[in-house]
Each structure stands twice: as structure tokens, then as C-alpha cells.
Amino acid sequence: MLKNVRSHESYLSFVVEQLEELYKDKTFLKTFYSRPIIWCSLIDLTDAAMLLRHRYSSNPRGRKPRNPCDMLRSLMLMHYHNVTSVDQWVYHLKTTPIYAVLSGFSPSNVPGVGTFYDFFNRLWLASTPHLSKRNKRKLAKPRKKGKKNQKLDPKNPKIVEKLVKRTLKNKHQNYIPKAHDQLQIIFQSLFVNKSAEAGLLGNTKSLSILGDGSPVLTGGKPYGKFLCECRKQGNWKCQCKRQFSDPDADYGWDSSREKYYYGRSLFMVSASDSPYDLPIYPRLYRASKHDSVLFISAFSELQQWYSDWKIGEVILDSALDATPIYEMLEHYDVSAIIDLNPRRSKQFQHKQMDINLKGVPICPIGREMIHWGLNQKTYRRKWRCPAVCGKWECPNPCSDSKYGRTFYTATKDNPRLFPRVKRGSKEWRKRYSLRTGVERCIKRQKVDYRLEDSRGRSSRHWNIRTYIIGMCQHADAWIKEAKKNNFVAANPIIQSLLSL
Description:
three-stranded antiparallel beta sheet, 3 domains, alpha+beta, single chain
């Protein structure tokens, strides 16, 4: 049971006292550790104790548990310094006292490796680090390959339509608990909501979000450990079960590198109007699942977690260009900004009128009709004859009216052909250009914080690592905002830390 958890102000006082005692050279601290000192000072993790209280025993036996605020802060510092191993981090805590002090520990009383793994169990709601059994048959590596920057289609061509129907049918049912829920609660309560209050995510009453998937390689191997005696009998291709160190990983197609990889797929949901490309919901799935399948699942869960927010716009790439996804977003009153997939795009017909890839009707002589207004409530567009509007004579007029032929298109008729924002328009290009924000968000995870450098071999490890890095991304944004608003210079507590 957690008792007498100290406040953030008490933590800052502890840091000041310890640094005054340990470091007499003030220039040394300012030169080498000013940024992590400010970074930790701006992260208030006091509420983490309340969020994790139910994960601790009400009648503890033995040693008193560590403060979860300090454990979480220490994990964030570990990822901030790009340390990928808990063993290495414990060594840093013991040999570099300032890391222990900034975590909230006394340099003479640093937690061991086992303490960190016990804390991992409190962050992970499943009974085991894995979501599936370790003993299973070996996976066959797929042979079919795609082209450069071209993702493979789902194995079941109708899987997206089936999932959308199931999602809309069960939208009022209760959320099914998952193993990573505790991580999402902490991430949402202590970081996402605070960034939203500071205006770093855009307007939450009409939030614009981005989504994209990215491969994540695991530290496990796809071959497994033999449990049978078939090899001694000369059978090297037996189908007996093997033991895998990472049973939740499988094969996925990496379109950028044009090869298969063994691991997971990270589907990242971020805010498009965020100046720092902040994540909202990082979600790990099996590598073999297509991005369109991942988006339907992530969007459904996103609606449950952020039920008090209104999602007004979704910006996605051409891998998610599927009619059921447009229909699902239209059902939730969400504007879809999705690029057309060139493999699925061709000349369309609507009400016996040809429609080009921009959603513009084509008159019988092959000219684009002129856009003549939009009903903002119903998203119904009016199109007029190009000859009448352009005041030139049509060689084959299709209407005797002086006003010329008119044609109407509406989003409800076909949300893929006629989205709320007209394809190819200035507004469309402006909104779709924001899609690279999710790629920068994933780049922060995989390059800046070296997500794949870890050799983790469990779903627990990868989920914790992904969420902790997401927390660090929000903390980095806070420190940039603090410098803009001159908060660092105006805060006497932080000044006392830097003026030691």
C-alpha cells in the first residue's frame, strides 16, 4: 500500500538538497546537466501514485515498495539518455549520482534490476509478459513480395468491410480491457490531457488526427527452440511445436526496405495541428496485419479512450484508401482526408455521369464541369456546364436551358468519390500536407529515442518502451514551450536548481 507519497514540490526540494551536498562545482552542473534538470523539474508525476495505487498490495509484507512516481521518472530518464537496458541503467544510477537524484532516489539507496521488473508488472495488466503461448509451430516466411513503397494487400480482401460492420454494430458495447490499459491511463492522464490543456494538440472539440503504421523489429528470432528429437532422426523440417522467446511477433512486409521483417507493427495516432507532432495513442499490433485493419481497431479504441473529445478530421495515406473506412468515418461525422490508391483508382461513374479522380463530373464532350457552390450542412455540391460558365459555344450541347446543365454530388452518396473537402483543391492540399506529422512522430520514436535498439522479446517490454518514449515526447514539447514563455527564468525553484 502506498502511503505519504511526496508532492512534486517536495521532490524538487529533495533534488536541491542532494545536489548542494554532492556537487560543489556549479559550473559543472550548468554545463552538462542543465537540460535534464529542467526537464525533470517540469514533469509532475505526483498523480501516478494514485493511478497505480490499486496495483500495490493493501497488506504489504517485507520491504516498503518504491515510490511509483520515482520509478516512472527514472524510466523516462533512462529513455531520455538512450539507455536500452535496465541492467545498464542501474549501473548508471550507481555510478552517476545525479541520475539517481533526478530520479528521486538517494545515491546510496538505488533500486536494483529486480525492482524495475516488479514495476513493469504493475504497468502491465496481463499475467505474463506475452499475449500468446510460447510453444507453437514455426511460422512460414511469406514468399510474395511487393514493390518499392507499396504495401501488400490484406490476405482477405473483404476483411476491412467485415471489421467496419462489426465495429459499427458493437460501438455501444463496453470496452474490452487490454494488457496495455494501465500504460494508456498514465499516458493520457499525465501527459496527453496536460498537453491538450496547454493547447499543444489543437482544438479537442474538433480534433484533427493522423495515423500511420511502421515496422518494429524484435529481439527474438523466428526459428524458435527445438523441443523434439526429430533432428536426431534426420528430419530437419519437422512440424513439431517449438519454444519462442517472443511468441507475439510474426512476419510483416517492410515496403520502404522491400523485405520481410520479424516483429510488430506500430500504429501511431498523433495530432495533426500539434506544432510538436505529439502522439495521442501509440498501439502495437502483429506485423502481419495491414494498416487498414490496424486503423479500424485503433480508431474504435480511440473513441473509447477520448470519449469527451470530438474527432473532426482524419488524415491518412493511400494504404487506407478503402470505401468502408470512408463510410465508417462519415458515420462518426468525421471528415476524411485520404489520398487515392493508384492501384484502386480509375474513371468512375455516378448517376450515368463520368467522374474523374478529383471527384469532378465530366460532361459528354470530356470537359470538367464547373464547381458552383457547396451546401455546408449536407456537403452537397453543385456543378454547371463549362460552356455556359465559360461563355463559349459547345459543339454538342446536352441541355436547351440558357443556364446550362447542372449536376449534383453529395458526400453521403459516395464519401470516397465526393469527400467533404474537394480533392485537388487548395484546402485539400493544405490539409493533406500535414500528414507528414505522423511520420515525424514515428521518427522521434525510432531514430531520436532509438526504439528498435532494444533487444526486447515480449509484448510487455515493447508496449512499455513505446509508451515511455511517448511520455518523453510530450515532456520535450513542454520544455520548448517553457523556454518560449520564459517560464524557466520566472520559476524560482528551477532557478535554484540551476544556480547551485
